[in-house]
Amino acid sequence: MSLSKNFRVPIASLVVITAVLAAIFTAPSSLSETERSLRNPKSAGRSEGQQAPATTSAARNAALISATDEVLKETSNLRQLPVLQPVQSSTESRAEIERMIVKNLDTGMTVAETHAAEIGLKKLGLASADFQYRAFMIRLLSEQVAGYYDPKVKQFHLADWIDVDGQRPVMAHELTHALQDQHFNLRRFEHWPKSDSDAQLATHALIEGDATLVMILYIANNPMRALAFLKSLSATGMSTEELATAPRALRETLLFPYQEGTAWTRVLYKQGGWEQVSRAFSELPQSTEQILHPEKYFAHEAPMKLSLRDIAPLLNASAGKPVKDEKSSKPARISSLSPHPSSFPAAWHRIDYDVEGEWGFYLILDQFLKSPSESRRAAAGWGGDRYEIYEGPNGATLFVSTSLWDTQKDAREFFDAYVKRTELRYPDAETTTVADSKTATSQPMSQQMTTWKTAEGPVSVKLDGARVLIIEASPASMNIKSLLKL
Question: Which residues, including other chains, have CB under 8 Å from residue 275's CB and lie 6 or more apart?
Answer without folding.
Answer: none
